[in-house]
Design brief:
This protein has about 325 residues and is an alpha/beta fold. The protein folds into 2 domains: about 180 residues, Bordetella uptake gene, domain 1 (D-Maltodextrin-Binding Protein, domain 2), CATH 3.40.190.150; about 110 residues, D-Maltodextrin-Binding Protein, domain 2 (3-Layer(aba) Sandwich). Helix 1 packs across helix 8 and helix 5 crosses helix 10. The strands form 2 sheets. A 7-stranded mixed sheet has the order 1-3-2-4-11-5-12. A 5-stranded mixed sheet has the order 8-7-9-6-10, sandwiched between helices. It is about 40% helix and about 20% strand. The relative contact order is 0.19.
């Protein structure tokens, strides 16, 4: 599904380094979800900033591999961009054999933003804090379980990283997506989960699950009273669901700068922050080089964890 973004009157002149044609913006998921909303919200404003038409193209399938391959094969002139995220350029390459190189086949353009994961427990569980949960896990090893959105998902790997750093054990129950995982948590079949904040907020507000800690290095505005793992003694535990922009390998530096500068200008707009808050996403503007380093570090983090925990998944 493709949708052109209308331009506003009086927009800035088009940058000469970009091709004089619409920019194809590939989103590696079906239309209608949170990632799609992020892409459409950002490109609507980005198009006005550049006086350039963006066409959002939802290329789902293969866990993002089709979108990645499509982007990697495109002309390296700035006319095709992709919304990479923690799965396509983080957890999937760390746990599976993917048909693309997440570093060499792409040019980092810029970060959009991130939302933390939140450690939640069923409200009936007799724990009020992270320490309470750790104490319970150590008293009842192997008797509690947590759900995930599937093997190799961020909800899976974040909990495994937590288990590793906490030297604690809780049984993993994988599901086919976050919705069925939440259904069993709410029904009491599992006791804990590490979902993204946006997915967790309705259940936190209803009181059916209790938040204990969030990832990231700062408390989130939606959960100001919930501490971070970093401040709870897990230094540097900043694993998050992030979204950024990639182009094919070898996009010219002048084009990258034009795209990065304009993207960061969009991210500074207060109304964009308000729009992204629906998905609990905090904008994270950074240079293209900084974003490239961020991606490399994220892949390295999850690759190391997957090796240490024996998480290697067959992609066939």
């Amino acid at each position: 599904m493709a949708m052109p973004v209308a331009l506003a009157p009086g927009a800035a002149p088009r940058a000469q380094s970009l091709p004089n044609k619409p920019i194809r913006y590939i989103v590696p998921v079906a239309a209608g979800g949170g990632s799609d909303m992020v892409g459409r919200t950002v490109t609507e404003r980005w198009g006005r900033q550049l006086n350039q038409t963006f066409v959002v193209d939802n290329v789902s399938g293969g866990g993002g591999t089709i979108a990645c391959q499509t982007t990697a094969r495109a002309a390296a002139d700035g006319s095709t961009l992709m919304q990479g995220y923690v799965a396509t350029h983080g957890t999937a390459p760390a746990t599976r054999k993917v048909p693309y190189d997440p570093i060499k086949d792409f040019t980092p353009i810029g970060m959009i933003g991130a939302t933390p994961n939140v450690l939640v427990v069923h409200s009936s569980l007799p724990v009020k804090s992270l320490q309470d949960l750790l104490d319970l896990l150590r008293r009842k090893p192997g008797q509690l379980s947590y759900g995930s959105a599937g093997p190799g998902s961020l909800t899976h790997l974040t909990m495994e990283l937590f288990k590793q750093q906490a030297n604690a054990f809780i049984v993993h129950i994988p599901y086919r997506g976050i919705a069925p995982a939440f259904n069993d948590l709410l029904g009491g079949q599992t006791q804990a989960m590490f979902p993204g904040l946006a997915a967790a907020m309705p259940h936190i507000r209803s009181g059916r699950v209790r938040p204990l800690v969030v990832t990231g290095l700062a408390r989130h505005p939606l959960l100001k009273d919930v501490p971070t793992l970093d401040e709870s003694g897990f230094k540097g535990f900043d694993a998050q669901q992030w979204y950024g922009v990639m182009g094919p390998a070898a996009v010219p530096a002048a084009v990258v700068k034009q795209l990065n500068d304009s993207l960061n200008a969009v991210l500074a707009q207060p109304d964009l922050r308000d729009k992204l808050s629906v998905e609990a996403i905090e904008p994270m503007p950074m240079s293209a080089d900084a974003f490239g380093r961020f991606v490399q570090q994220d892949i390295a983090r999850w690759t190391q964890l997957a090796q240490q925990r024996g998480i290697q998944l067959d992609n066939n």
